Structure formats: structure tokens, C-alpha cells
Amino acid sequence: HVHFRTPGAEQKEDWLTGSKAALAGGVTTVFDMPNTNPPTINRQNLELKRNLVKEKSLINYGFYAGAALDNLNEVKNFEDVVAIKIYMGSSTGNLLVDDLAVLEGFVSEAKPILAIHAESEACLEHTLSEFKGEFTPSIHSKLRPPRCAEEALRNILNLALKYKKRIHICHCSTELELKVVDEFLNRGFPKELITIEVTPHHLFLSDKIYESLGNFARVNPPLRSESDRLAMWKGIENGLVTMIATDHAPHLKSEKEQEYLKAPSGLTGVQTMLPLLLNAVNENKLSILDIANLNSFAPAKSFNVASKGLIEVGYDADLAVIDLDKLWTIKNENIYSKCGWTPFANMNVKGRVEKTLVNGNLMFDYIDGINDYFGDHLGSEVTFSR
Ligand code: NCD
Ligand code: ZN
Ligand code: ZN
């Protein structure tokens, strides 16, 4: 789950810088979100993006289509997308489906999987209108409270239950959401119809971090309480969480340095996810096999990606070579993303990516974190076995 900003916002990221960030983080395939400019909401814009990416990507990739109020007929039969992303609440860009009737149309008629940004626009608007106080970065979490995620999730799951529709929940961040999913499963919602994704920032950061990061901690859904953070780990432990995905959404330092109301939401993450998880292995929070499942096998299986997710004959040689014992410090100067910053700066981690292979080609070789080797083979688009 990445926002590589092509086309339309290449000042924040382009496919070369995004590819390098991914490779340095041991990531061999990304699925790109549709909130680009123009947005990926019709055949023409999808092909436009595809043609640009094909010439530049050093990693493998797939594309999400985006839902809009008026494009159901345009996208409902797409077979060459990972899923259709539905923004139930506003975030970066102007994709928004806040109309329940339109939402029901997508759930009942669209063939692709629906990937949901579950924050209710009505709830967000109401919360903002009631808010009295000063607009500082730390109120971001209060302006997008857990109940707004809960409300959106209930709405989409009610529809999905009615039409037996396959749903993917993007960036799940609260204990409340996991409870709602549990409740629906108990009411007979088929487990195979729902997959849940959690981000590294919701696993490793909480709303305590605004003090030091300010707008550099501003993201949608927002960072949550410490107990919500621990609930995400619980969800991984008990198997309710299907996968870990970055929601890599770069913005420029200059944009983040503006006052709260002007600063955009989104964090980088594609380069730091695997090191943070390796560190967690060293802290006995999960196993290497858990990472292989959460970052590779489960996403490939959930989205029916052909020949990926396993190391086996017949599968693509997309591999990360890691040193589980290497101690190092995450630094902004080592971030290959064009925006050049990470919310995890100055964290000490144990575990580093040494080499990354894509389709059997050596594409990243660690040298010193600044002058590393990058290969020049182009990646390819994933295919689906459905
Ligand atoms: C994303 C972005 O900047 O594109 N931002 C974010 O905070 N996650 C948009 C999104 O998917 O919400
Ligand atoms: Zn989102
Ligand atoms: Zn996103």
C-alpha cells in the first residue's frame, strides 16, 4: 500500500525514488493507490499511469482503481487492478464516497475487491464542527476519533454482509475496529471475505509522538492511543490481522512545516517497515516466518497475485537478504524517498536489509546507506489468478 505520486505530484516522490526506497527496505512489489492527479478513476487515467510507471519502476507493481461518486460503471468490471479503493472519509486528494447509496452500488455491482479507507465523513465533519480549542498537530487524533472509523466500518460491513462482498480494510488502527470485525464474524460474516491490514506506524508509534514530531506525525487514520497500538499487536497474535502494509504517503518537509491546518496527512514508510519488523523479531514480538506471512504470503494470497508470496519452484525470485544481528540507527539522510524524512528517525534497530532481488536480478546491495548499489532492470506488473 503505497502512494508513489505518479502522475501529478512527482515533487513529493517519483517511481525512481519510490523504487529505491522500496528496494532499500527489502520491498519487491508495491500496490499503488489511486489518489494521484489525475486520479486513477477510469480506463484512460489507469493506462496513463501504467505507461509512465512501466518505463521507470525498478520493482514490481500493481495498481488500485479509485471509487468516485460517478464512476461505478467505468470501473466495475476492471480485471487488471489490485482492488478498488474507497475513501469513506476525506484524506489527501479529492476521492470521496460519502453517499451510502453510491457505496451500496459498489458493494453490489463491482467485481474487484473493495479496499476501504474506513473513516466516516459525516462523523469527521461533526467532530470538527464541535471542536473548540487551538489547532495544533496533536489535535489531529482528536479530530479523527476511533468512533469515526467504527461508524464507517459498520456501514461497509453491513453492506458487505448483505451482498456477500469481499472487503479489504486498509490501515486498521483501533481496538474498536477489531471488535467490530469480531462482532460481524460472530454474526456469520464469512471470514474468507474479509482481510485486514495494519501499518508500521500504527504498530510502532502512538499519539504521544506529536510532542516531538508535530505535523510529521500527521496521518490518516491518525496515530492512536498506546492501548490501541497494543491492540494491533494483539490482532497480529490472534490472527485477526491479515497483513502489514506501509501506507507510504510522502509529503515534502516544507509542506509538513506549515501550520497544522495547512499541513497534509501522510508518512513515509516503505523503506523502514522491514527493519522495524526485524527489530521486533529481536524483541520476540513475532517470528521471521510471521513477517514472511504478513508482508508477503498473505498479501499475495489475499489479492490473488500469481506466482508471488512463496520461495518455491515456479514462483518469482523476489527476495530480501537480511542480517538479523546488525545494529544501526534510522536516519533521515538515509531515506531514499524524495521527501527525505521518516517519522522513525533516530530509532535504534537490530536487523538490516543487505540485498534485494527482484525477478532474480540483484537490485539493491547495501554499502553504507548513502552510496548503495542499485540495479537497473525494470520491474513488471503483477498478474492475478482469479
Ligand atoms: C494519504 C496520502 O497522502 O496520499 N495520506 C494518508 O495520511 N494516509 C491518503 C490516504 O490514503 O489517506
Ligand atoms: Zn487510506
Ligand atoms: Zn494510503
Sequence of secondary-structure elements: HEHEEHEHEHHHEHEHHHEHHHEEEE
Q: Please mark out the parts with pLDDT under 50 across 5 or more consecutive residues, or reply none.
A: none
Number of strands: 12
Report helical residue fraction.
25-40%
What fraction of the residues are assigned to beta strands by DSSP? 5-15%
Bound molecules: N-carbamoyl-L-aspartate, zinc ion
What global shape is seen?
Answer: globular
- Main β sheet profile: 6 strands, parallel
The DSSP helix count reads 14
Q: Radius of gyration, Cα only, in angstroms?
A: 19 Å
Mean pLDDT: 97
- Which structural class matches the secondary elements? alpha/beta
Distance between the termini: 20 Å
List the helices and strands and how they pair.
Layout: H1 15-24, E1 29-32, H2 43-54, E2 60-63, E3 65-66, H3 72-75, E4 84-87, H4 100-109, E5 114-117, H5 121-130, H6 140-143, H7 146-163, E6 167-169, H8 175-186, E7 194-198, H9 200-204, H10 210-213, H11 226-237, E8 243-244, H12 253-256, H13 273-282, H14 288-302, E9 319-329, E10 348-358, E11 361-365, E12 373-374
Parallel strand pairs: 1-2, 3-4, 4-5, 5-6, 6-7, 7-8
Antiparallel strand pairs: 9-10, 10-11, 11-12
Helix pairs in contact: 4-7, 5-7, 7-8
The structure holds N-carbamoyl-L-aspartate (NCD) and zinc ion (2 copies).
